[in-house]
Amino acid sequence: MKFSSLLYFAGFGLKTIFLRKKDPILGTIILTDRCNLKCRHCSVNNITAVVHPYSQIKAEMQQLYEMGIRILFFCGGETFLWRDGEKTLRDLVTEAKAMGFLIVNVVTNGTFPLELPEADLILLSLDGDREHHNLIRGDTYDTILENVRTAASDNICFYMAVNQINQDCIRDVCLTARDTRNVRAVSFNFHTPYPDTKHLKLSKAEKAACCQVIGEMMKAGAPVFNLKAAFPYLIENRFPTPCDQCVVIENGKLSTCGRCIEIEGLCDECGYFFVAEYTLLFRGNVKIILEMLKTYLKYI
Questions:
Q1: Mean pLDDT over all residues of the chain?
Q2: Phi, psi of 123 (to 5 degrees)
Q3: Could you tell me the pTM of the whole model?
Q4: Of these four, 118, 149, 166, 290, which has the most CB atoms within 10 Å of its CB?
């Protein structure tokens, strides 16, 4: 991370904490909900299968920038399916950088060639060892790892959603992240139980067991891009929601924190580690602040 960016984020954090502001800093643009996979834990793929045009995405980028957003995520569906004429995902990333966003990240399922060195991070879904990942996402594990090894840059971070199917695979994914070319880190979430996937959610005891394994892997030197100080809050679901500092925009509709905010009761069962980390950070949790500084400087 550039020093100038660090100073900007530090200033934003201090104003948010001490002045109790609710201005957003992180924004996500949904490029499309079209996806080439139908994962067992996903509730948001191919609902419309519409690929939003470049002019609309650029306008949404400008809208977020004017709101003060400086960390931008492009999400899907599958982001690498996005195209408008000759415009591709790479054009969106370079446009966002030119516009002034300080960090530009992309979320993908990893089944397409990862020719995107311009992104700060490519968050790539890996949901277990070969057996369990393929059980969730179809026969994609080997393709994904080959794409990772041949990627254009070492800007990849694995992104694992832990659920009833793969909860025993955390160690495998940590070791794969440690030992695979071009991978900087691995980031975890717990499954957030949309109405059609409630059977995949973890109990508090299961979350605690998962956090213990993640902590052990951190101690062993695995490159985990999460904050251990947030684990107790995640286990008990006692962090504040929604996160006012995060917004999502999809087809012109702006939502605080995430698309799931309109589903009654779902925020109370949120499994997103970054939501816990950010809400605790911006409420002045000292342990979170110190751990985030160390972690973000290491992996971004």
A1: 95
A2: -90, 115
A3: 0.95
A4: 166
